[in-house]
């Protein structure tokens, strides 16, 4: 048997090597972050770079052993702020090792960064005030209880006490702070047993609007509201008691509106999928207006929200048919695309005149690079992945569409083996994305790198956007509400049938399946309902909705458990809860199944993989359990580079054993 180390994997790279482009107010220069993998030290290295639009090549702007992130121009373009965990000479030796990110400011023309905060909870999401004299930021505040200062015992009194990727946050809350741009005393603006999730300066710089839920039962609610708080200090004031989840907000330049993204929910106990929409709320306590009701797409997760200077339109992002682009939405509800092409736009920013859009973007064969859209059109500015691409074996995916049995068209892609030979038949693997409200597309990130690793080892790789995927309308994504494992399962089965019938290089007797998160749930569901696949790999998966409800950091929330059980808790409809749990069908599972899970996964906890593994072993089925220590749910995207590499080696090992 081959040793694991003998399975050679092409180089790992950050999911988005180029990210967070920030164009200067006058539109002449662009700051952005560039990340690389240091395999020797098993870490990612991120620094800030700058692209002068008059010059051909970008140059590195920050240096050092510690990462620098969150670049942001001051309103006059003379200063740049960023965050870094670089230690100072005054820090004790032990503090240097575990220091959290702090705020730094430096001249836009270069120089040494000057540290202006030293807050215990670290700094996140900094933003300049409109006049450039102050900086708003988020930080964690401990408001819990400990027996002694040194105690490591956790006293838990709320349901929301852990977050995947962040770990346990018992008694810790996220709040707003301001600090003078020159440095000085830090002022805390919000305080209490609640989290602030997004914030925006008013154009006069006197008030902050923010999103939170201050209700006593906030743990149990999916809803968020909009509040305001004076920068000079005072109690927050409720501006809008909302009817659903809000994820972002921005004050209009004229001060008359607050734009926010989210969705209204008629029944708080029964949350079927709906598009995330763009709303504008009159600050004078009028009713909000939905601007995107006539555009059947959901806003991108974590998409930036930008106003035009005249307050007559906003820029947002939407997924559409495997792409992700910037769109302009007017106050009249007119929606038009800005960026275009078979690519996925990441983060973006606009100059003060909104004449230029700087953005990061990836296509099917290129990791993210820096792009710009202006009066000359759209073009790529950097080629920082050129050296990396010479080491990667990337095959151009072929897009296909098939008509499902209910008449709906479903999009997919197929990747041939890197050393493809006409006339040969190849083993094939079908990949299932997470979410479920997500999607594959024209992109080359961590997920797609996985496809090309398998293709490099002689596999055909098929990936599709079955029902539940975003980018195809509300009905397409919402049809599985309360029906996971039904129409989505049919789409995956029919996609398998389609590629077997239409691509003669596929060997139908050597077909595998794999997926992570929701894709892991679907992999478990599939092997419990069919034996047509000869091998399977399930990652960070869900096997039992009942235990997931109480162990996941989101399991007890309105989604996803309540969506599956028609608004009920598991104990109120045990029969339906277990009917939708893959573990119920474990006796039907005969496909060799590799179970991969991260030990610090708080989203789909380790126990989900554990109970499936033990059940299969007791039944005498072919299975293995691979556990990755010190890794969260996002192992495949943000895990330690060596762990990401080893994870892929297990994929190839497993499929080689059962498909070759």
Briefly characterize the structure:
The protein is α+β, with helices and mostly antiparallel strands.
Verbal overview:
The chain is α+β, with helices and mostly antiparallel strands and 660 residues long. It contains 12 helices and 38 strands. Among the domains are: 198-228 and 237-338, TolB, C-terminal domain (Neuraminidase, 6 Propeller); 392-544 and 581-659, Rossmann fold (3-Layer(aba) Sandwich), CATH 3.40.50.1820. The strands form 9 sheets. An 8-stranded mixed β-sheet has the order 31-32-34-33-35-36-37-38, with helices on both faces. Strands 1-2-3-4 form a 4-stranded antiparallel β-sheet, with no helix packed on it. Strand 33 (426-432), helix 3 and strand 34 (460-464) form a beta-alpha-beta unit. The chain is globular, with a radius of gyration of 25 Å. It starts with 17 loop residues before the first strand and ends with a helix.
């Amino acid at each position: 048997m081959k040793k694991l180390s003998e399975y050679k994997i092409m180089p790992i790279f950050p999911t988005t090597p180029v990210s967070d482009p920030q164009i200067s107010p006058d539109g002449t220069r662009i700051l952005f972050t560039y990340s690389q993998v240091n395999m020797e030290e098993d870490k990612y290295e991120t620094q800030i770079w700058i692209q002068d639009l008059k010059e051909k090549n970008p140059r590195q702007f920050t240096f050092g052993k510690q990462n620098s992130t969150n670049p942001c121009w001051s309103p006059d373009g003379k200063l740049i702020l960023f965050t870094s965990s670089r230690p100072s000479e005054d820090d004790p030796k032990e503090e240097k090792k575990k220091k959290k990110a702090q705020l730094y400011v430096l001249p836009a023309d270069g120089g040494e960064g000057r540290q202006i905060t030293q807050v215990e909870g670290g700094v996140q999401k900094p933003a300049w005030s409109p006049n450039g004299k102050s900086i708003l930021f988020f930080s964690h505040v401990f408001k819990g209880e400990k027996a002694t200062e040194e105690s490591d015992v956790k006293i838990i009194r709320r349901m929301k006490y852990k977050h995947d990727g962040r770990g346990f946050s018992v008694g810790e809350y996220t709040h707003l702070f301001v600090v003078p741009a020159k440095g000085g005393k830090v002022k805390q603006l919000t305080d209490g047993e609640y989290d602030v999730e997004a914030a925006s300066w008013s154009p006069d710089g006197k008030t902050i609007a923010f999103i939170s839920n201050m209700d006593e039962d906030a743990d149990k609610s999916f809803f968020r509201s909009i509040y305001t708080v004076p920068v000079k200090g005072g109690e927050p004031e409720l501006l809008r008691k909302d009817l659903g989840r809000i994820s972002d907000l921005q004050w209009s330049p004229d001060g008359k509106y607050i734009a926010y993204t989210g969705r209204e929910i008629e029944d708080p106990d029964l949350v079927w999928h709906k598009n995330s929409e763009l709303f504008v709320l009159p600050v004078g306590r009028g009713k909000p207006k939905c601007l995107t009701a006539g555009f059947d797409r959901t806003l991108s997760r974590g998409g930036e929200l930008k106003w035009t200077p005249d307050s007559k339109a906003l820029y947002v992002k939407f997924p559409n048919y495997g792409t992700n682009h910037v769109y302009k939405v007017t106050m009249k509800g007119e929606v038009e695309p800005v960026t275009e092409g078979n690519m996925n736009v990441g983060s973006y920013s606009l100059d003060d005149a909104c004449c230029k859009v700087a953005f990061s973007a990836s296509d099917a064969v290129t990791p993210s690079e820096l792009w710009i859209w202006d009066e000359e059109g759209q073009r790529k500015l950097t080629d920082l992945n050129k050296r990396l691409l010479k080491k990667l074996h990337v095959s151009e995916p072929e897009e296909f569409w098939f008509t499902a049995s209910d008449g709906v068209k479903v999009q997919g892609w197929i990747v041939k083996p890197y050393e493809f030979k006409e006339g040969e038949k190849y083993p094939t693997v079908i990949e299932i994305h997470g979410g479920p409200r997500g999607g594959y597309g024209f992109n080359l990130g961590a997920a797609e790198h996985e496809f090309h690793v398998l293709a490099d080892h002689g596999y055909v790789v098929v990936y599709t956007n079955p029902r539940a995927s975003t980018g195809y309308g509300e009905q397409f994504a919402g049809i599985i509400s309360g029906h996971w494992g039904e129409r989505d399962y049919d789409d995956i089965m029919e996609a398998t049938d389609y590629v077997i019938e239409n691509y003669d290089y596929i060997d139908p007797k050597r077909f595998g399946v794999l997926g992570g998160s929701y894709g892991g749930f679907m992999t478990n569901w599939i092997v419990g309902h069919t034996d047509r696949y000869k091998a399977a790999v399930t990652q960070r998966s869900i096997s039992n909705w009942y235990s997931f409800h109480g162990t996941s950091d989101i399991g007890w929330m309105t989604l996803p458990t309540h969506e599956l059980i028609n608004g009920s808790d598991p104990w109120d409809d045990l029969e339906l809860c277990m009917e939708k749990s893959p573990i119920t069908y474990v006796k039907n599972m005969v496909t060799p199944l590799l179970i991969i899970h991260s030990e610090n996964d708080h989203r789909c906890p380790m126990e989900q993989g554990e109970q499936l593994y033990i059940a299969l072993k007791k039944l005498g089925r072919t299975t293995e359990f691979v556990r990755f220590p010190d890794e969260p749910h996002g192992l495949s995207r943000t895990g330690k580079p060596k762990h990401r590499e080893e994870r892929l080696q297990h994929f190839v090992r497993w499929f080689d054993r059962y498909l070759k």
